[in-house]
Write a structure and sequence with these properties.
The complex is a heterodimer of chains A (460) and B (507).
Chain A: H1 2-14, H2 22-27, E1 53-55, E2 62-64, E3 66-69, E4 75-77, E5 83-85, H3 87-99, E6 104-106, H4 115-124, E7 133-138, H5 146-159, E8 165-173, H6 177-186, H7 190-199, E9 203-210, H8 214-222, H9 224-227, E10 231-235, H10 240-243, H11 252-261, E11 266-269, H12 282-291, H13 297-306, E12 311-317, H14 321-332, H15 339-353, H16 375-387, H17 400-414, H18 440-456
Parallel strand pairs in A: 3-6, 3-12, 6-7, 7-8, 8-9, 9-10, 10-11, 11-12
Antiparallel strand pairs in A: 1-2, 4-5
Chain B: H1 2-22, H2 29-37, H3 40-45, H4 49-62, H5 65-69, H6 72-85, H7 101-117, H8 120-126, H9 128-157, H10 173-193, H11 196-200, H12 203-212, E1 217-221, H13 231-235, E2 241-242, E3 247-248, H14 258-262, E4 268-272, H15 297-318, E5 323-326, E6 329-333, H16 352-358, H17 364-368, E7 374-376, E8 386-388, H18 401-405, H19 416-419, E9 422-429, H20 435-438, H21 445-449, E10 455-459, E11 469-473, H22 483-487, E12 496-506
Antiparallel strand pairs in B: 1-4, 2-3, 5-6, 7-8, 9-12, 10-11
The chains are: A alpha/beta (460), B alpha+beta (507).
Chain lengths: 460, 507
C-alpha cells in the first residue's frame, strides 16, 4: 500500500509535465490563502497547477523551484514539558508538499538542536530515496576537529536514513571571515574528506551557504577553480538585492551576478527575510495588496527570487499548512516578474529600507544567550512596533500616551521580565553567531534606553 | 431614613477603600486616597491632629458613627452580619449581653503598651483598618488580579492594550496566613453575633467608646411609647440594648440605627440627649459576665496569633529556590534575598525607626507598588510591616506611589524630583560574584542603569587599555534604588546589593 502511494507520488512529481494545465490557468487568478482550514486535514484547496522545475546544469537534476526548508518544524511538548517536534504534523506537511511536487528538502544538524534532521529523516524515509533531493550541512560551528566534523557528517546520514546526500553544504561560511573557513574546513582536512566523498558519489553536489563580507565571498569564489563548487546558497530577496547591511553583508545582486558569471547554480535562502517581508508596515502591505488583492504578500517575494533564471530552488520554511499551500500555489502557477513588476518591487524595497527595523530573521543562532535574554523575541517585538507605527518620537506628540502604553504593555506580554533587554550585560558572545552581523548588544541597549525614556517620561 | 443614610455612606467608604487596595494602577488614589487618611489609627500614627480631633468631635456629638460608616472592617462585619440575617429564622438573632470589660480593657491596655513600647506586630494585628487592608490585599486582591488577567488575556487576543496582566504572588506567607485567620475570625464572629469584635477586641472601638458614652446625640428609648416588644434588642448587632432595664450601653452602640428603623411604636429616637431629661437611657452597665453564649474572642485571637507564628516559622523553611525553564532560552535561577546590614525602607520614610513606628501594616503601599519591591516582613519584630527588596524589580526613579498612598505618615509624600535627592541605602559590590571576574566577560549592567551615576567601571588592570572593567560604587552618590542589584546578572545572589541607611540622607 505504502509503495503504491509512493509510486503514485513519484510519478506525479517526475511526470508533472503530463498534468492538465487548462483548468489551472483559468482559476489561477482567484485563489485565496487557506485561512481557517484544519492544518491537519490536508484539504486540497490549491487549484491544480504545475510545479515549476529547474534543471541543474551540472547533473541534470530536476529540482522543484520551491524547496522545503526544515530549519523550523511545528513543535509540541512531550510529557516532561520539553519542546519536541510534532512528527504527525511534519509528516502531513511533507506528504502534502510531496504530493504537489516539492522535491528538495534542506536541513542541518544544527537546526532545532538536531531534532530537525531526525524529523525530516522520519518523514522522508517513507518515500523512495530517489524520489527527492536531500540537502544538509556540515554545521561544525563549535568544534572544528576532524573527528567531530566527520562524526557530524555520519550522524547526518544516520538521522536522515540515507547513505548519500544530494546537496551537501559547508554551513554559513564567511561569518568568521576567510580565517574561520580555513580553520573549520581546510586545516583540519575536512574539505579534502568531503571532496573524496563527492568522488565516491556519497555527495552528489558540494557547495556552501554564505553569510559575510564581499571580500570573503570573492575569496570563496576564487576557490571555485580548485574545488569546483556545484552550487552556492545565498541570502536573496528583493530587499537584500540592493539594501543589504553593508559592509558586514553583501547585496544579493552582487552575489547573484558573480555566481551567474561562473555558471554556478544558486540556491536561495531567506527569500522572506525570516518573515520580515511578510510582516511589513501597513503602507507597504497596502501597496502590495493594492496591486494584487488576492495574492499573498509573501508571493511577491517568492516570485522575485524565482524569476532569476540561475536559481535552482527557493527555500521556504513552512511550518503550517496555510503557508505551504500558499507557496505551492505561487510556484504551481509560476509567473516570472515582468520588468514593470520588478521596478515596482525595487520601489517597495526602497520604502521598506527606510524603516529602522533590526534586520533579525529570527534564526536563533545567537541563542541561548548565557544570561537568559530572549534576543530574537525582543527584536521581533521591536520590529513589529516599528511596522505598526508604535514608536513614539517625542513626548509632545499627540498620541504619545497611547504609543507608550502600547509599546510597554505589548513588551511585557511578549517577553518575560527576566529576559528583557535591560538584562543584557553586553558580553558580546552573541555577535559572532549572528548571520546578519547585527551588533546585538548595541541594539538591545538602544531598545532598553528607549524603554527607559518611555518609563521615565524623558523622551524629548 | 437614618439607616439609609448610614448605609449609603458606608457603602461608599467600603467600596472605595477596597478599591484602593485592588487598584494596582494607582489612579483611584488621587480621588479617594483621603479615605485611608481619615482612618483613626493611621491618623494617630501620622500625628494628623486635624483628623484625630475631628473624629473625636464627631464621636462626642454623634456617637460611634465612625465605626458604622468609616471603618472598613466595621462595615465589612455589617455586611457579613446582614448576609447572616438573610437566613430564615435568623432575622432576630441578637440579644443583649453585658459588656466584657476584662477582655475589652485588657486588650486595650496591652495594645497601648505595645504601641508605646513599639511592639509593632501586636499593634498591627489589632489595628482594624489595617486588618481589613490585609484581608483586601491578601484575599480580595488575588481574585481581582485574576479577573484582570483574564481580561488581559482577552485583550491580548483582541490586540488591545486596555488591560495588562499582573503577577499574582504571595508576598509574605505569615501575613497571608494572619489575614486569612483574621478574615475567618471576623467572619465567624460577625456571622453569629454581629459587632462582637468591635465591642470586645477592637482598640479603636474602645478608645471611641470613652467619648461615645457622653455623646450629645444618641438613640434613646421613649419608655412611654415602648411596649417592651424586644424587637430593637433582637435587632441590635452591638448587643447593647438591655430592654429589661430600658438601658442602652452607649459605649458599644455604633449608631447603626437598626433599632430605630425596626421599632413599630416610634419608641426609639435619635436625638439630643441633654437638656430634655431623658426618662431612661444612660449607660447600661451590665455587671455580670455571661460567658455561656459568647465566644471568648480575646482568647480566640490570641490563639490565632500563636498559630500564625508557628506557621510562619515552617513557611520560611518550605520556600525553596524556584527555577524556570523554557525552550531555547537559558535557564534562569530566581534571585534570592541578600543579607543586608541594615533593612531598606521606602524613599520618604525618613528613617527606619520613623517608618516602623508610624506604620500600621495596612498594606496599602504593598498593594500599589508596581515594581514588586514592597512586601510584608516575616520577622516577628516587624511582622506584616513592609520591607523592601529588589529580587523582582527596583525602585524606579519616576515612581513615588507608596509615598502618595501612605495614610499613617510612615512614608511622607515626595515628588520624583525630591526622590533623586534622597539616599535610602548604599550599594556594595561583592567582587567574588561579579560576572566580570567569574565569567571573564564585559558587563557594566549596574553602571549602565544607575540613575545617580554612582557606579564607575574601572579597569581591572589599570595599565592595560583593553582590560575588562569592574564596578566601583561612589557611596556619596548612591541613592539605594536597587537598579544595580536587580539587573545584576549574577544569580541567585547579585554581585551588588544595597544596604539600607538607618537614617535616610537628603542632599
Amino acid at each position: 500500500m505504502k509503495d503504491h502511494i509512493s509510486r503514485r507520488n513519484f510519478l506525479k512529481i517526475t511526470g508533472a509535465g503530463s498534468v492538465a494545465l487548462g483548468a489551472a490557468a483559468a482559476t489561477s487568478g482567484c485563489l485565496k490563502r487557506a485561512g481557517n482550514n484544519n492544518p491537519l486535514s490536508g484539504n486540497d484547496n490549491t487549484s491544480p497547477g504545475k510545479m515549476e522545475y529547474r534543471n541543474n546544469p551540472g547533473n541534470g537534476d530536476k529540482v522543484s523551484l520551491l524547496g522545503f526548508g526544515c530549519m523550523r518544524w511545528p513543535m509540541t511538548k512531550d510529557k516532561d514539558g520539553k519542546d519536541i517536534v510534532d512528527q504527525d504534523i511534519v509528516n502531513t506537511l511533507v506528504d502534502y508538499a510531496f504530493k504537489h511536487g516539492v522535491n528538495y528538502y534542506d536541513t542541518s544538524p544544527a537546526y532545532l538542536e538536531g531534532q530537525s534532521e531526525k524529523a525530516a529523516g522520519i518523514a522522508l524515509g517513507r518515500y523512495p530515496r530517489k524520489s527527492y533531493y536531500l540537502a544538509t550541512k556540515l554545521s561544525n560551528f563549535k568544534t572544528w576537529t576532524s573527528e567531530a566534523s566527520k562524526r557530524m557528517y555520519r550522524d547526518s546520514m544516520e538521522q536522515l536514513q540515507t547513505d548519500y546526500f544530494d546537496y551537501y553544504l559547508l554551513h554559513a561560511i564567511g561569518m568568521n571571515g576567510f580565517e574561520g573557513f580555513e580553520n573549520r574546513y581546510v586545516n583540519n582536512g575536512i574539505l579534502d574528506f568531503l571532496l573524496e566523498e563527492r568522488k565516491a558519489g556519497r555527495i552528489r553536489n558540494l557547495g556552501f551557504s554564505f553569510h559575510g563580507t564581499k571580500d570573503s565571498f570573492d575569496s570563496f569564489l576564487k576557490l571555485h577553480d580548485i574545488y569546483h563548487w556545484d552550487f552556492v546558497q545565498i541570502e536573496l530577496n528583493y530587499l537584500d538585492w540592493e539594501h543589504a547591511k553593508i559592509p558586514r553583508n553583501v547585496n544579493a545582486d552582487y552575489l547573484y551576478g558573480e555566481l551567474e558569471k561562473r555558471k554556478i547554480p544558486v540556491i536561495v535562502m531567506e527569500p522572506l527575510l525570516g518573515g520580515r517581508l511578510v510582516n511589513v508596515p501597513d503602507n507597504i502591505a497596502d501597496k502590495l495588496k493594492g496591486r494584487e488583492p488576492e495574492k499573498s504578500i509573501a508571493s511577491w517575494a517568492f516570485r522575485f527570487a524565482g524569476s532569476l533564471p540561475d536559481v535552482l530552488t527557493v527555500l521556504s520554511g513552512m511550518t503550517s499548512m496555510e503557508h505551504l499551500q500558499d507557496n505551492i500555489n505561487t510556484f504551481s502557477h509560476f509567473k516570472p516578474l515582468s520588468p514593470e513588476e520588478s521596478g515596482f518591487l525595487k520601489e517597495t524595497a526602497d520604502l521598506i529600507s527606510e524603516y529602522p527595523v533590526i534586520p533579525c530573521n529570527d534564526c536563533k543562532y545567537c541563542m541561548p544567550c548565557p544570561y537568559g535574554i530572549d534576543i530574537p523575541g525582543i527584536f521581533k517585538h521591536f520590529n513589529k512596533c516599528v511596522n505598526d507605527g508604535f514608536i513614539a518620537r517625542t513626548k509632545e506628540q499627540e498620541d504619545y500616551n497611547r504609543l507608550k502604553k502600547a509599546y510597554l504593555v505589548s513588551y511585557d506580554r511578549s517577553i518575560a521580565s527576566m529576559r528583557q533587554a535591560n538584562h543584557c550585560i553586553g558580553c558580546k558572545q552573541c555577535i559572532e553567531h549572528c548571520p546578519q552581523s547585527i551588533m546585538i548588544p548595541n541594539e538591545l541597549h538602544k531598545i532598553d534606553s528607549y524603554i527607559e525614556r518611555l518609563k521615565r517620561g524623558t523622551l524629548k | 431614613m437614618l439607616k439609609t443614610i448610614r448605609r449609603i455612606l458606608a457603602a461608599f467608604s467600603f467600596i472605595f477603600i477596597t478599591l484602593l487596595f485592588l487598584d494596582f494602577t494607582g489612579t483611584l488614589q488621587k480621588w479617594f486616597g483621603w479615605l485611608a487618611r481619615i482612618q483613626f489609627l493611621p491618623a494617630i500614627m501620622a500625628l494628623n491632629l486635624a483628623v484625630i480631633i475631628a473624629l473625636i468631635l464627631i464621636t462626642i456629638v454623634f456617637g460611634r458613627i465612625y465605626c458604622s460608616v468609616i471603618c472598613p472592617l466595621g462595615i465589612f462585619q455589617d455586611l457579613i452580619s446582614w448576609m447572616s440575617g438573610k437566613r430564615k429564622k435568623k432575622k432576630m438573632r441578637f440579644s443583649y449581653s453585658p459588656e466584657k470589660k476584662w477582655i475589652r480593657y485588657g486588650v486595650f491596655v496591652l495594645f497601648a503598651i505595645a504601641l508605646i513600647s513599639g511592639i509593632h506586630a501586636f499593634v498591627s494585628i489589632l489595628a482594624p483598618y489595617s486588618s481589613y487592608g490585609r484581608i483586601a490585599q491578601n484575599l480580595f486582591s488575588p481574585v481581582y488580579l485574576w479577573m484582570n488577567n483574564f481580561l488581559a488575556f482577552i485583550a491580548e487576543k483582541a490586540d488591545s492594550f486596555a488591560f495588562y496582566s499582573k503577577d499574582v504572588w504571595i508576598k509574605s506567607l505569615p501575613t497571608f496566613v494572619i489575614a486569612a485567620l483574621t478574615f475567618a475570625i471576623i467572619f465567624i464572629l460577625a456571622w453569629k453575633n454581629g459587632r462582637t469584635y468591635c465591642n470586645t477586641v477592637c482598640p479603636v472601638g474602645t478608645i471611641l467608646s470613652f467619648f461615645s458614652r457622653f455623646s450629645l446625640f444618641r438613640p434613646i428609648i421613649n419608655t412611654e411609647k415602648c411596649k417592651t416588644c424586644h424587637i430593637c434588642e433582637r435587632k441590635c448587632k452591638a448587643a447593647c440594648i438591655d430592654l429589661k432595664t430600658h438601658k442602652i450601653d452607649y459605649s458599644r452602640c455604633v449608631d447603626c440605627f437598626d433599632c430605630i428603623d425596626n421599632c413599630r411604636f416610634d419608641a426609639m429616637e435619635y436625638r439630643f440627649a441633654y437638656g430634655v431629661k431623658p426618662k431612661n437611657g444612660s449607660s447600661g452597665n451590665g455587671g455580670e459576665h455571661d460567658l455561656k453564649n459568647e465566644n471568648s474572642s480575646g482568647k480566640l485571637s490570641r490563639r490565632a496569633f500563636l498559630t500564625t507564628t508557628a506557621i510562619a516559622v515552617t513557611a520560611a523553611t518550605v520556600k525553596a529556590g524556584e527555577k524556570k525553564i523554557d525552550g531555547g532560552l537559558a535557564m534562569i535561577t530566581d534571585k534570592k534575598i541578600p543579607e543586608r546590614k541594615e533593612r531598606l525602607t521606602p524613599f520618604g520614610s525618613v528613617s527606619i525607626d520613623h517608618f516602623y513606628d508610624c506604620c500600621t501594616a495596612c498594606q496599602l503601599c504593598v498593594s500599589v507598588c508596581p515594581n514588586e519591591i514592597l512586601r510584608p516582613s516575616v520577622e516577628l519584630e516587624y511582622l506584616m510591616q513592609p520591607v523592601m527588596s529588589y529580587e523582582r524589580g527596583y525602585c524606579r526613579p519616576e515612581c513615588v506611589k507608596c509615598s502618595e498612598v501612605c495614610p499613617s505618615g510612615a512614608i511622607l509624600k515626595i515628588t520624583p524630583e525630591e526622590k533623586t535627592a534622597i539616599h535610602i541605602g548604599t550599594a556594595v559590590v561583592d567582587y567574588d560574584l561579579c560576572v566580570v571576574n567569574t565569567d571573564n566577560v564585559n558587563c557594566g549592567n549596574c553602571a549602565r542603569h544607575c540613575p545617580a551615576g554612582a557606579i564607575r567601571m574601572l579597569r581591572k588592570d589599570p595599565d592595560n587599555r583593553e582590560s575588562l572593567r569592574i564596578p566601583s560604587v561612589i557611596e556619596e552618590r548612591c541613592i539605594g534604588c536597587g537598579a544595580c542589584e536587580n539587573l545584576c546578572p549574577s544569580r541567585p545572589y547579585s554581585a551588588i546589593h544595597v544596604d539600607g541607611l538607618k537614617i535616610h540622607r537628603t542632599d
